[in-house]
Amino acid sequence: MEEYLPLIIQLVTGAVGGNVAGKLLKNLSLGTVGNSIAGILGGGLGGQLLGMLGAGAGVASGVEASGAMDLSSILGSVAGGGVGGGVVMAILGVIKNMISK
């Protein structure tokens, strides 16, 4: 279960990040459900991307050699998930606005 914890953190913070971005960027908002779904997708992608780039060593796996998560892994998962969720929500909001015009 512990190996899935970073991914769960990324998905949850992605949903939060998508909804925060939706509140801040009202013209790009997809609604609560849309913001959450876009945020979950972005949270997973953003967290994994940061891990592959080496930000916060262990973010991709989230687990040190000892098998326990450290604070930097948790913070990296939160940051990657939240930012990724907000970015994907904003991109989808722009696309939605372009299509509706």
What does this entry show, briefly?
With 101 residues, the protein is mostly helical. It has helices spanning 5-24, 31-53, 71-100.
Notes on the structure:
With 101 residues, this protein is an all-alpha fold. Helix content is 72%, strand content 0%. Helix 1 (5-24) packs across helix 3. It is elongated. 46% of the residues are buried.
What is the end-to-end distance?
46 Å
Shape: elongated
Structural class category: mainly alpha
Average residue pLDDT: 84
> Which stretches are poorly predicted, pLDDT < 50 over at least 5 residues?
56-65
Fraction of residues in helices?
Answer: over 70%
Percentage of residues in strands? under 5%
Query: Quick one: biggest sheet?
Result: none
> What is the alpha-carbon Rg in Å?
14 Å
- Tally of DSSP helical segments: 3
Number of E-state strands: 0
H and E order: HHH
